[in-house]
Design brief:
Helices cover 74% and strands 0% of the residues. With 68 residues, it is mostly helical. The chain has a domain at 28-68. The radius of gyration is 12 Å and the shape is globular.
Length: 68
């Protein structure tokens, strides 16, 4: 039985955006993968693909989230 709770909504989105920027810094845009972001955010790929159908859209939304 798991004692952790599943992150949802804003908490999950924040973890994903944080993972996007960590992956961009570590491997760059060309080598960034949805799998790598999901692993860094400790979530499944399906959670990403439900919100963002592509890497381009995920990175664009992450940038929009932090830029004025």
């Amino acid at each position: 039985m798991s004692t952790g709770t599943r992150r949802r909504g804003g908490d999950l989105e924040a973890a994903i955006y944080e993972a996007v920027f960590a992956q961009l810094e570590a491997v760059g845009y060309r080598r960034l993968t949805m799998e790598g972001v999901a692993a860094a955010a400790r979530t499944g790929k399906a959670a990403l693909y439900r919100r963002w159908p592509s890497k381009d859209e995920l990175v664009t939304d992450a940038l929009k989230h932090v830029l004025p």
